[in-house]
């Protein structure tokens, strides 16, 4: 996903959170998170992402610390 696509996805998520409201936001995020975790190729990737998210929350700092996309290898 490139930066424009990531921005579109983030905007869509923010709009969905607004539509469901503050009370239902944790449920939406939980459902989304589980759906996305299920698409990962292995448990190690899931554990790394969970640890990254937890550390970002506990640090009270910037939370947009996702890794940059890796360019595809030439074929």
UniProtKB/TrEMBL annotation:
It comes from the Bacteria. This is DUF2783 domain-containing protein.
